[in-house]
Amino acid sequence: MRSLAVDVIKQAFSQTPAEKLHKKLYVAICNCILEGSLRPATRMPPSRDLASELVLSRNTVLRVYEQLQAEGYISTRTSSGTFVTESVLDNLNTQVARTTQTAQPEDRSSLSVRGLEILENASASPAQWGDFIPGVPDVNSFPHRTFKKIYDRISRRLNPEFLTYDAVGGLEDLKAALSDYLRTARGVKCSTDQILITEGIHQALDLVTRTLCNPGDHAWIEEPGYWGIKNILRMNAVSISALDVDDQGLVPQTSPVEKPKLIFVTPSHQYPLGSVMSLPRRQLLLSQAREFHSWIVEDDYDSEFRFSGQPIPSLQGLEEDSPVIYIGTFSKTLYPALRLGYVVLPKPLAAPLKKVHNELYRSGHQVIQAALAEFIKEGYYAAHIRKMRQLYSKRRNQLVELIKQHLGEEYLGYFNSNAGLHLIIQLPPDADDMQIVKQANAEGILVRPLSRYYFNQHKSKGLLVGFASIKDSDMLPSFIRLANIIKHKY
Ligand SMILES: Cc1ncc(COP(=O)(O)O)c(C=O)c1O
């Protein structure tokens, strides 16, 4: 089979100015190796093939290979061929580091005001895997083999429609499986045609904001709250009121100057503090939404993981035809890279929002969706959630004990309910949680500063500590390192 390396070298060869052919080929291959387009351990094309592709004599190619071998760029393994040397990596790394250092300075002059605002408020962490990372489930526990078996089975009798664009807001089978699941597990009132499959909650929030808000409209969010929603509102020029959260959830304004078009809440498990919205608060919010003609956006990101008491039913299901757009995700129950979430749209919004979604995002991934539908229908999804619930409950208890033992009970966040994938370590108001996080992150401990989740000036200090994905054997040593950083920093 013709190798990709031939094409890479051929392209570099055509762009290399040199008079002598062997020099030209030598420079082209060196550049490919140093720039990384021929990576360490890549098999070099056989000299005969390369000579024929580049219309060179085989001797020219052999001469260049000999020179590259003498200089350590490539090496020959008896009876298996010629390869880019593994140790070239060190040289390559130095070269890449040099290129990065001399890279063009950032030019933001052509960015829009909104784009600049997003950059100024950028909050997504560059590191997404490490000790105590909040919000990331134990991705190693996902039953990859089972899922692959289902996926392979579907791939063998592939429906061609799975390989073209999705134009109906997600695969029917998945929407049907989800509506059954949401009705029983989350008390959501829905039919299959109200469901829209998205690439996660994040995309759903963007769709809802873009489609329902005009620039200058107003939205309520929770204070503190999910950072992602703030940047989506900024990008859509929607003004924000960040309303306090107490032990009953969001505290609504009774006579707001500006009525909100959208109200974003996490009633089952407030993000990030952890309180559960009480029934009176839910009823008040629903009646306000009806009075203001607002839509409540219920972000039900991790409600499957409640470790004691009854599951908290959705706000959406509390009333018939409630003014609630319900949003959920597979990021926490399965794994974030799946990038699959869902919206339960109120009936009057179902058709228009699906259409806008189709116009804006051109969806796909139907084979994965079909596999997921089977995974749910065959009971694997519920079984996985049950298993993870036990595991996370155990890890959460361990973390609570470590906080009490190494820091003190007063460090446990006020509203931490027995749920979710993270806990809050509460810090005194004068603590610099950003500094603590900076040092912890440098040591591979990926906690996040609570103050980063606030919109207004008054910010509580604390740390979001994820317990879901940390290895049991790492829990104690990593926590001791974190506790030492906290104690040392103030
Ligand atoms: C409260 C909340 N909502 C939404 C999301 C994003 O979910 P998704 O991965 O489905 O975009 C997160 C991710 O951490 C979250 O914490």
TrEMBL record:
Keyword Nucleus: no
CDD domains in alphabetical order: AAT_like, WHTH_GntR
Residues in HTH gntR-type domain copies: 19-87
Recorded coiled-coil stretches: none
GO molecular function: DNA binding; DNA-binding transcription factor activity; pyridoxal phosphate binding
Keywords, in A-Z order: DNA-binding, Pyridoxal phosphate, Transcription, Transcription regulation
Family (UniProt): In the C-terminal section; belongs to the class-I pyridoxal-phosphate-dependent aminotransferase family.
PANTHER family: HTH-TYPE TRANSCRIPTIONAL REGULATORY PROTEIN GABR
Protein name: GntR family transcriptional regulator
Native species: Buttiauxella noackiae ATCC 51607
